[in-house]
Design a protein that fits this description.
Distance between the termini of chain B: 37 Å
Number of domains of chain B: 1
Membrane topology (chain B): Multi-pass membrane protein
Structural class of chain A: mainly alpha
Largest sheet of chain B: none
Protein name (chain B): Transport permease protein
Low-confidence stretches of chain A: none
Low-confidence stretches of chain B: none
GO molecular function (chain B): ABC-type transporter activity
Mean pLDDT of chain A: 87
Largest interface: A-B, 31 and 32 residues
Helix content of chain A: over 70%
Helix content of chain B: over 70%
Number of strands of chain A: 0
Mean pLDDT of chain B: 86
Number of helices of chain A: 11
Number of helices of chain B: 12
Order of helices and strands of chain A: HHHHHHHHHHH
Keywords (chain B): Cell membrane, Membrane, Transmembrane, Transmembrane helix, Transport
Oligomer: heterodimer
Number of domains of chain A: 1
Organism (chain B): Sporolactobacillus shoreae
Distance between the termini of chain A: 35 Å
Shape of chain B: globular
Radius of gyration of chain A: 19 Å
Order of helices and strands of chain B: HHHHHHHHHHHH
């Protein structure tokens, strides 16, 4: 068990430091949460809705978390390829999946920091109140949300192993998820067909659960149903990651083009 | 004269093609069509949700303008950095060609491309959000958009000139993008900003263009619109001149310290 933790921690440590040195990531972690929160605050300013603080914290926090995944985990494989290190870490005696998990956790850690920054902004800069009405349920929802973002990061990162345009494609994944998963507005504003797609994406449930537990749960049965749905989706994502890795592993060994860009 | 103009267009086209040339058609369409559409849909739905309104015309117009930000910042703004990256910066600087034309040429096709992005945004608005264009003076609207694109590319050239001394432009470009998202009045009225921040809005391109286009869309053609359009043109020209001035100063500095190609 200890060597596994060692691999994950070493990968996390190196990767988080390396990523934080990148200008784009510095923007996503340090500046985007403040600017996004400010944008939402200014839009809400005229109407003074209830739970404005909670709305801004969850919305900008999740948007930032997603951006940090898109601009890091999704492009990590491509960056390793560009630096010429992908083949080395792929064939190293440590399991590539563990190394990549360390990458993802490092990105998530920095992404979570941006959520904290956004909360600080909302409370101290804009003077809004942020309450957590159901702390125990919030903790549950928060933990599952982190797990769900870890699962989806692994899945996207692996899929992008096959693409040589990952860096371009990752730029195109930001807004569709903002829209489909209702990170800022409820998915009820979307056409019915799109709502079905939204329900197979774990951030949809994560956003719903975080919002509910912060603003106050209306119906505990629905809340637990959402919690179970999110747990099932996380499990499916992890299973998909395992199956996909086997397929991708076989393909890159046959094609021999892992390091070609 | 024909020779100079020919070179100007050739260089402009080459510079534009160099930016996207390495992408295949599918990825190019994703970047230039699908992504802007998604951005527009996101911000329009956000405005619709927050303002509880079905009439999203003003927000659609504002956000259609913002689609051109990618051209001005990530197209024109990164041009000097790209030249350094491709190893051609020293050749561009050392060539005896008219520097001003070389500089402005980098933005020329992006003005047209930015215009096409705005038109795409409006088309999506008509198709998905029932944008009403019946009261619109189409000719005046397009002149306003064209001048706003000129102003936006002026800002891009100004930021691009900083590429001579800044090695990684990503932080600066992303920051500038959000500054435009927040301050140009596309997603909330400029009047909502604290007074001292409202001044920033009017130092930026596109703010006046959006205001003018919203008035044109409402069919309210007043002398104020011409004032806004005129000031938008002046804003663009000032950015372009400051950018060129910066380019000359920074070029001299870079030559002196032999850091032109260092990144």
């Amino acid at each position: 068990m200890l060597p596994i933790i060692n691999v994950i921690f070493s990968s996390l440590n190196v990767h988080a430091r390396q990523n934080f040195a990148r200008a784009t990531f510095q923007f996503v972690i340090l500046f985007q949460p403040i600017l996004l929160s400010f944008l939402l605050y200014m839009m809400l300013r005229g109407s003074n809705p209830v739970h404005a603080g909670e709305y801004i914290v969850v919305s900008s926090g999740l948007m930032n978390l997603w951006s940090s995944i898109i601009f890091s985990s999704a492009g990590d494989i491509d960056r390793e390829r560009y630096m010429g290190t992908l083949e080395c870490i792929y064939v190293s005696p440590s399991d590539f999946r563990l190394i990549f998990l360390g990458h993802v956790l490092g990105n998530l850690l920095l992404g979570l920091f941006s959520m904290v920054l956004s909360s600080i902004c909302v409370v101290f800069l804009f003077g809004l109140q942020v309450h957590i009405e159901n702390p125990a349920e919030f903790l549950c929802a928060f933990t599952l949300s982190i797990l769900s973002f870890t699962a989806i990061s692994l899945l996207i990162g692996l899929i992008f192993t096959l693409s040589r345009s990952a860096r371009i494609l990752m730029n195109c994944l930001e807004y569709p998820i903002y829209i489909l998963c209702g990170l800022v507005f409820p998915i009820s504003v979307l056409p019915k067909a799109l709502q079905f797609i939204a329900y197979v994406l774990s951030p949809t449930w994560a956003a719903q659960l975080l919002r509910e537990s912060m603003a106050g749960i209306q119906n505990i049965r629905i809340f637990y149903f959402d919690l179970i749905a999110l747990s099932i989706l996380i499990l499916v994502y992890f299973l998909l990651t395992i199956v996909l890795f086997k397929k991708i592993d076989r393909r890159v060994r046959i094609d021999g083009t892992l390091g070609v860009h | 004269m024909t020779g100079i103009m020919g070179r100007f267009f050739r260089q402009s086209l080459l510079s534009y093609k160099a930016l996207y040339g390495y992408l295949d058609t599918k990825v190019y369409l994703l970047v230039k069509v699908v992504n802007p559409i998604m951005q527009l849909i996101f911000f329009t739905l956000l405005c619709k949700y927050i303002y509880h309104t079905d009439d999203v015309t003003p927000w659609l117009i504002g956000n259609s303008f913002l689609l051109s930000v990618y051209n001005s910042l990530f197209g024109v703004g990164i041009v000097m950095n790209n030249e350094r990256h491709f190893g051609t910066l020293k050749l561009v600087i050392a060539s005896p060609a008219n520097k001003f034309l070389v500089f402005v040429g980098r933005a020329f096709f992006h003005i047209l491309d930015g215009l096409s992005s705005v038109i795409l945004g409006l088309l999506i608005g008509v198709l998905l959000f029932h944008l009403n264009v019946t009261n619109m003076n189409i000719l005046l609207f397009f002149i306003t958009v064209l001048i706003s694109m000129f102003a936006a590319m002026g800002m891009g050239l100004f930021i691009g000139s900083l590429g001579l001394v800044v090695s990684d432009m990503n932080l600066l470009l992303n920051l500038s993008m959000y500054v435009l998202f927040i301050f140009c009045g596309a997603n909330f009225p400029v009047e909502r900003l604290p007074f001292f921040l409202q001044n920033i809005s009017y130092l930026l391109p596109v703010t006046r263009g959006i205001e003018a286009c919203r008035l044109i869309a409402e069919g309210r053609i007043t002398p104020h619109i011409y004032h806004l359009i005129g000031m938008e043109f002046v804003t663009g020209a000032v950015y372009m001149c400051i950018g060129f001035l910066f380019l000359i100063i920074l070029e001299k500095l870079a030559k002196k310290s032999a850091t032109l190609d260092v990144y």
